[in-house]
Amino acid sequence: MTAGRLSIGPILVVVALAFAGHLSPAVAQPLRFWTTIGSAGTVDEADTGLVAFNGAVASVKAGKTGTVNLRYNVVPVDGLFGGDGLSMAVKFRDNGPAARVVARLKRYDVVAGTTSTLLTVDSDDFDPRSGFQIRESLNCGGQPSFGPNAYFVDVEMTKGAGSGTPGLAAIVVSLSLCP
């Protein structure tokens, strides 16, 4: 269901194909992917004392440790439709074992009242870096259905010790062209 430890590549391929006219007319125009910046998330009430916002970036406050939970409401935009599945790219910072950022694209079934995870990007799956990096996950299981479902990105940002510098700068959810 979820896959990839890919870079931003598939999103760029989709954009290039759209501009070159290789996608259906419905998506051959410039695509509007769903995007957000890290600081736009809704913070769990219990975590307000832990989170810091600096420009676009959300992080754990200096001198604090713990886990910050953030949620981002995903709305239907044309860049989510017309492909074989979905892709989620996350720009995060994880400088080592004292930091972790996990972003999960989730679907809430309004009728059944159940939540399922469609995509996950976990910073611990990649080499740590002192700066930001962009990583992506693909789901080739079809397009979203916003009628009976609501979608959101659930992010856990953990700082386990003073040396950790977890950060979230941006999230992009888009259609994907699956192999």
Strand content: over 45%
C-alpha Rg (nearest Å): 16 Å
**Any idea of the CATH topology?**
Jelly Rolls
CATH class division: Mainly Beta
Judged by helices, strands and strand pairing, the structural class is mainly beta
CATH architecture: Sandwich
Number of β-strand runs: 11
Low-confidence blocks of residues:
1-8, 10-28
CATH homology superfamily name: Galactose-binding domain-like
Q: Helices and strands, in N-to-C order?
A: HEEEEEEEEEEE
Question: Which word captures the global form?
Answer: globular
Number of helices: 1
The largest sheet is: 6 strands, antiparallel
Average pLDDT across residues? 86
Give the terminus-to-terminus CA distance. 14 Å
State the helicity in percent bands.
Answer: under 10%
**Total count of domains:** 1
Please describe what this structure looks like.
The structure is a single chain. The chain has 179 residues and is mainly beta. It has a single domain (9-176), classed as Jelly Rolls, CATH 2.60.120. 7% of the residues lie in helices and 47% in strands. It has one helix at residues 9-20, and strands at 34-37, 42-43, 51-54, 57-60, 66-74, 85-94, 99-109, 114-122, 129-139, 149-159, 167-176. Strands 1, 3, 4, 6, 9 and 11 form a 6-stranded antiparallel sheet that branches. Strands 2-5-10-7-8 form a 5-stranded antiparallel sheet, with no helix packed on it. The longest helix has 12 residues, at 9-20. The chain is globular.
